[in-house]
Amino acid sequence: MQLTSLQMFCMITVLIVASLPSIVAATKVKSDLDYSLAGRNASSFMVAGTIVATIVGSAATVGSAQMGFKVGISAIWFTVGCGLALIIMGNFFAKPLRNSHLTTISEFLVIKYGESAGPLSSVASTIGIFLSIVASMLTAVHLIAGAFNTDLFISGVIIIFIVLSSVLLGGLSGSGITGLIKITLIVLTICVAGVKAYLDLGGAAGINVLFPKEPWLDLIYGGPQQLLYNCISLIIGVVSTQSYVQAIFSAKDSASAVKGCFIAAAITIPIGIPAVIIGMATYKSNPNINSIDALPWYLLNNLPEWLGGVAIAVLILSSIWSISGLVLGCSTLITRDIFKAVIGIKDTKKILWFNRTSVLFITILAEIVVFKNINSYVLDWTYLSMALRGAGIFLPMTFIILFKEFVPKKAGLLSMIAGISVALTWKWFFPLAQDTLFPSLAFNLLFLVPGVLIGYYQKNKKN
């Protein structure tokens, strides 16, 4: 991937300018509440911006184009699944979570299941989110190395700089602002490129002529079972992630939280479409390139020179801002549920300092893990991440919202222990198993369902 001087200039300019709002946001941060939750005064658009900043990362752009290059239109299901997850979050989770006036998912679980639930959910969430950070960094390191024609170490340094500038100072306010900028830039570049790719292929009629139905035009390529598994995994992963729930906690009221989820869903669902079409157009133009380069190759070779440079900056920012949102969620869990809850730190300035220090530490640690596993597979990290988050959080949290007082404390706590234990050990006992998520959920239900039935029975008996 070779950039011209004009493309390089435009790319660097966008990277610098897009980082400035976070620095400005830092001047308004006076406490840990300002940093972690934007002072609980975020509008629906800021909530949406915070979510989009994290959820529309390299998988939604580069990943969708890569799969479009390999299998065609069925690649749109990643962003569709993410959008469905946000709709479900808005309908069922946003209002009770925002009305709890808490900061982390762990705090929400502690209220119902007791103090022991806090460390369990915090550890599962922190490790799960950290693995997602590693997965995102694996993509970002290679993308930046190609854009700047530099080695992987320098690429890692650039990632650290952009992550810290976008979230270290401004916190959630900075993340929300960068999300709104990301939306604008994606519409300007990737959506424009998607329209051009569609026209280059001859529209719908041309696509039907150029591509055979299998696999290119099959919406459920891989079968309905695989599609269902992927969508369920995405829904569980999104709903169980501190970074997205943190955006809900930051809303000024529950209505803003709900609207923010719906706005984010409306933005996220269609973003994959132009990326997939670009992947298909790249395949017809240059089928021999590495599939992961499909999107950047098309942007550099088919857009006006200046816009191609801007577009590469958008890809880099999409990837790194996604990392930033995940890092902020991870640091908030560490700060609130370890430094504050366990160690007992109460001073807001000290908590703010610990939060910012955690951002720095997590970013550097993730870089170290990436370079130790530079040739590993992104999806391996992603699936393990989803399993850990879903196993310890999704169903225990869902049962609190759906069944409230009918879930016994002990049943909820045992379900968390069982789910997390299965997620960590399942492949040791069953090495050929493709996933650990569904077995973990089954063990959650093994305790939650009888617990709810017992709760109903005891309540009716009292009445």
From TrEMBL:
PANTHER family listed in its UniProt record: SODIUM-SOLUTE SYMPORTER-RELATED (PTHR48086:SF7), SODIUM/PROLINE SYMPORTER-RELATED (PTHR48086)
Protein name (database record): Sodium:solute symporter family protein
Phylogenetic placement of the source organism: Bacteria, Bacillati, Bacillota, Negativicutes, Acidaminococcales
Subcellular location: Membrane
Superkingdom classification of source: Bacteria
GO cellular component, one term: plasma membrane
Membrane association type: Multi-pass membrane protein
Stated family: Belongs to the sodium:solute symporter (SSF) (TC 2.A.21) family.
Main location: membrane
The keyword Acyltransferase is annotated on this UniProt entry: no
Alphabetically ordered keywords of this record: Membrane, Transmembrane, Transmembrane helix, Transport
Transmembrane segments: 6-24, 45-69, 75-94, 122-146, 152-172, 184-207, 261-283, 306-330, 351-371, 383-404, 411-430, 436-457
A GO molecular function held by the record: transmembrane transporter activity
